[in-house]
Amino acid sequence: MKIAVTYDNGNIFQHFGKTEFFKVYEVEEGKVISSEVIGSNGSGHGALAGLLAGQSVDVVICGGIGGGAQAALAEAGIELCAGAQGDADQAVEAYLKGELVSSGANCDHHGEGHSCGHHEEEHSCEGGCSGGCGGGCQAQPPLIGRNVGKICRTHYRGTFNDGAQFDSSYDRGEPLEFVCGAGQMIRGFDAAVADMEVGQVIDVHLMPEEAYGFADPAAVFTIERAQLPGAEGLEVGQQVYLSNQYGQPFPVKVTAKEGTTITFDANHEMAGKELNFRIELVEVKDK
């Protein structure tokens, strides 16, 4: 197993796409047996995923990372632990102990540099639970099962506890495709598929910690409208994209407009919710 950390003089470099170095750790039986520092060769966000895949890296630990880079890592089958900071060696030890929790595509949106991005009317992860939302390491052991590491195609229907449907691949007429165990899906969905047989249909009930986690009060923030061009045209309840100081977009919902301020909630819309899935495994193939 190999773990790569964005690296700067002993610490975790805080911007994945601009890191000049990675420290790559070789791990056996839960222990670091060797490490080396490699250059990024000036690669950009997407190319870095290819660079790490070429080094047979299994896990990336970093600070800030945007959604595009996260998707590229997921496509390469590399697990992501974002939002880490401090000493690189200590972060790896924490990961190996199951104490490091990923915050996902997280670049600090509480700092300066807000700007309103494309004013999309709606943001949802395709398939209801793919695209890396809630993926990455969650301080849990690796998944075990016949389908882990393989490309799985599933049909599914997702409902809340009251029976209301929030998503369905059947309605779209196309199964959802993902690499099982690569962090592309929420943990509970991944775990359910890990040992299924082709043609099998199962029903699963996921608690928030197995799905999109619990809402984080720190992800609700208020800023002066004057700091955000286009804020006057936003309405409460509208879902839009903002960009942080690195120019990386992240989705938020407008929750309040009072006086000269506007309040946003960057929590996932499914945070804190129990979810139910009926899953049908349609096909499994090697990567």
UniProtKB/TrEMBL annotation:
GO terms for molecular function: peptidyl-prolyl cis-trans isomerase activity. Residues 149-213 form the PPIase FKBP-type domain. GO terms for biological process: protein refolding. The keyword Cytoplasm applies. The keyword Isomerase applies. It is an enzyme of class 5 (isomerase). It holds the Pfam family Nitro_FeMo-Co. It is found in: Cytoplasm. Belongs to the FKBP-type PPIase family. This is Peptidyl-prolyl cis-trans isomerase.
